[in-house]
Each structure stands twice: as C-alpha cells, then as structure tokens.
Amino acid sequence: MATAYFNEAGSLICLIDGECQAPENAAHSANVADGTNPNDIYFDAAEMTVNLKAELPISVAFNHVGNIPSGATIMFGDDHVTVDDGTLEFDADVFETVLIYVDHPRHKAAYFEVPTGPLEGE
Fold it and tell me: Is the pTM of this model over 0.85?
C-alpha cells in the first residue's frame, strides 16, 4: 500500500511507498493501491475520496477552445492562463496551429492543436 499526498485543490503532490513525513504543503492524504498511476488520480475533499481523473471534454474550433473545466490552466508558447468561463479565444494575424497544454486537478492533462488565423474580412 502506498500513501498519496494532495494539495488543497486535490492535485497530487507525491505518491510514496513506505514510511515518510508528510510534505508541508499537503492538505490531504490517502492510502492507494500499489501500482497506482500518479497521473490518473485526484482527491475529492467534499467526498474525502481518491478518484480517477476523467478525460478533458475540450472542444476545438477555429480561434476557439470550449468546454474547458473551470479552474483549468492552459499553457501555450510563453503564456499561461487560468480559465473560469469555459472558453478561450485567439485573435491571430496569421494562419497557424497553436499547441496548447491543458491541466486541471480532476482531468487528465492533455495537449490540443488549435487552428488560428485572421477572421474573414480582416
């Protein structure tokens, strides 16, 4: 049996097999089965349970990313933003594909390609 330590948001800080002192920033801990993939779990503080992360429900369209879970962090280029309204819009001068990385405590982190460019008539 291994011990998983989670921050206040439910994100895994570390997974340790054996005895150790809890990390200072750990808000929660739970025993998990040996062989648990640390990238696949999160802690639900309301239910006090460890759960498997879901796939991101992201939808991608031209200059637009939708269905983003509230509180997700999106990284692209040198920028990163936290999304609370479920959408991310791009305003681009040239046609290109932007690679974004989306991370959220309750979902599996993933990369997405977003086609961007000027809107017709601009």
Answer: no
| Burial (Cβ within 10 Å: 0-12, 13-18, ≥19) of residue 108 | middle
Provide the 3-class DSSP secondary structure of residue 118: coil
CA distance 122 to 112: 26
The helix/strand/coil state of 111 is: strand
CA–CA distance, 91 with 100 (Å, rounded to integer): 15
The model's pLDDT over 17-71, given as tens digits with 9 standing for 90+, comes to 877 778 888 999 999 998 899 999 999 999 999 999 999 999 999 999 999 999 9
Contact (Cβ atoms closer than 8 angstroms) between residue 16 and residue 22 = no
101's enclosing H/E stretch is strand 96-104
